[in-house]
Amino acid sequence: MSQIYLYQNSLNKNEVDVIDTDNILFEFLKVKKQFPQAKIYLGNPCPENDITPSIKDKASIARLTEIADDCSIVCHPGELSSFVTWVATKILGSAVSALVKVPKPNMSNNGSMSGSSNNNLSDPENRQRLKQRIPFILGRVKAIPDLFAPVIKYFKDGVEVEESLMCICENPVQVSNFKSGDTPIQEIPGTSLSAYGHNQSLIGNETIYKWGDTFDQPPVIARQNASINGQTLLPPNSTRIEASDIYFQYPNLIKANDQGTADKFNAFDINDSLIISGANFGINDLAITGQVDVDNTNNTFSIASNQTVVDFQDYRKINVTSLLVTDPVNGQLDLAGLYDIDTITYVSGVYTIHLKNPVSTNSNFANLTEVLTANLSANLTANSANIFLDGNYVVTGVDIANKQISLATPSAVNDDWNKLADLADQKTSTSTIKLRGSQENYIGWFTIESAKATGLLLNFQALNGIYQGSDAKFVDIYVEYQQVLNGNPTGNVYNQTIRLNGKANNRDSVGGSMWITLPFTGAVRFRARRTNDNGDAVDLSDETKFYTAYAYHYLSKLVYDNRILIRQRTQATRAATAIDSRMTNCIAESLVYSYRDGVKSNTRIPSRFIPDLVIELALHKLIGRRTLNEVNVEKLYSVFDEVVDYFGSEKMAEFNYTIDDANQSFEEILRMLAGVSCCNDRRLNRQIYFELERAGREPYLLFNHRNKKARSEVRTIRTKPENNYDGVEMTYVDSEAGWIEKTLKIPNDQITNPKKIEGYGIVYKQQAHIVAWRAWNKIQFQAINCRFSCFAEGELVGSGDPVAVVDDTRLAPTFFGDPSQAILSGEVLAWNGLNITGSQPCKLSTEHSFVIHLQLKSGYIDIIPVTQGQTDFDFVLSRPPVEALVTEGEVKTVYSLSTDDRQDDDLFLITTKRRAGIFENELTLVNLDERYYQNDSDIKNNLI
């Protein structure tokens, strides 16, 4: 004898019948008659054990007569490929997916995130969101403001400063805990921040939050030129070639020994200016230091020194490497440079050097107002006994093959070239020589098209400082700009200059900003060049870059009634620049009116309570567009008081999220609010309210053949979870752990194929736990899918409502007697005390207990034990109904009969409702199982 395990619902392995039989084929055919899609398996049910016979394979039928092993029969095997099963599968999937009613992340056309950073804390960057919805904050969130205007950078007192204008949201909020990344702004020196509420001026003292200095000037609205990206401003005399194998030949040749050096000669073209540096042959330079008196009237350096300088009168140049003086009128001046000497005299330990036109070497000489004393470090060079060939010449030819450059009559510039004629072979020895080019190294022109521009902001920076050894240097920059009309330069070319001053013994970055007020409005072009040269000393650092360029104007509108704005100014200190990008954030909580007592509160209060948020949205002129009469205020507050009491936590009645999708409707937002609180949003008699989905609810309506469209019902039993899910993985933001994204895995961390849910609006572990467990329980225990069309009664129910549904897809069970005489639902035609007469005959078996489901006129379904009356149409109630039955008119009380021990089989939960015609709706449903709610008390039981 074999045993057959009969599974009607493979999702619940406890519901199995065991049949002892000597004829497996006979028992399988009996089941097959009732369940045409049944399959039989050898041992445990799985695809490889499938031994279901087919008509085409007669041997498979014969094998069932020979098997003596245990088998399993699955009445609804689940791998059906019919259209009906496919539809039912999609219905169940939709039911689970709709559990947490939240929007999908907004994606731009290129696949990048386009929503507010508030909802994407993994990328918490302040950025522009052009042509997108202004954030609307509900509850308490970590807010990452959007850029309201482009960020601008400039230098103030040599330090880089960044200013930004940002928008938190459109609705009133309470703000606190401002940070840049994870660093409180109070810990970042030089940071100022002000937040402005509705109708507060951006240059006023009235704010909703303030730290640091007051902003007393309008915000700068700038348009940056992307072409300026750190180009180096070359000095006018930049070194193009430096080599140790260069020598000079009479009368006008610069020559090289190595071909590699000669290949570099193409850095010069004919008619280029060429500066020779370091061509000093003979007596070495003489270093001289000491205290010097600088006389601007007589153009002299008077150096007090105990050095004995032999043949001092033969030196023709002095190279001053360090000389800083402080003028009483013009302040500190740097007088370094290579000066021409007219004469040198020596009297009583003082060398007096008379200079030739010192202003041509260093323009600061002209800024001296009196004789000044300072310390000097210099070299006497170009001894007359030497051959000194340094100078500025013109190139007449470049011959790389012969390794030479020809100059135009160099002896006219420096007559030491004539001394080469007296040397052996009329040439010098090799030496390390620098060949420098002299030109105006402009960066630009660049154009910025900005119709409202009234100014230019140009930033320059020497990242490594401006110094030589321990001495400060400077860089002079010259800028030209011109108006552009219709793409054509027009009018005068204007100019402006700026000097970047280094600091002695200081290697910090040096920056400077040129603020130019334009004499016109609109598009402008500009260019810049460096005008001074600090030489090529090894210990010189003065590389200066064109950092950024903006065309700007000042914001004219300073007061907004629909924006919460922030102004921030940050200095580029070590703490501020430790963050790669701008990540200003704060905690923002919506300010709303409360209607708990039925009247509007006097002032707005911070609130995360869902009823307060629902009313705020409903009354909003652009979101809900409702009046207070269209909100059931009393019901709204009472339901969420019930939510708090039922789950044991106020957190289950909170919603914390930022609405940022322009296409999101009011109804979609309400579903989000309902989803995080395990409720369903409702609208009855034009009034909005919510209902808690909880255990122990009675069905609202009864659907039977009287109010269902004939032959429209389809039922499918699932034998495995949707997509073989083995759990639920919920991602949410944990506000109590520092506003970080977390992942909760249900039922354990070992799941490998979870249903993934984004918990938008959930910021508590307890809330995530309840919602996730409900989702997983529905995946586990949703076994029956049902779909049918119904008539007017369908208008009274909505998603999430429990209803009773009579199964019109099968014949009556045998325990009702003869199936041809057992119709299980109908209308009540007569009622007399405990006796009622039904519209359909049904013979009740004496072997079972039965109940009748009566749908009363109020919509309530009364379930009463019942026995057979005098005829198959008559039934006797065990007690009177709770309301009077309707037996006359078009709409009578309807009923449904079922066995007392299987009374929950016809309870369903509506997942979707779709209008299918006039007074006709199509409902999709899943079985209602109390196990959906088995984890609802976990907060009360301290299991979280």
From TrEMBL:
<protein>
    <submittedName>
        <fullName>Bacteriophage protein</fullName>
    </submittedName>
</protein>
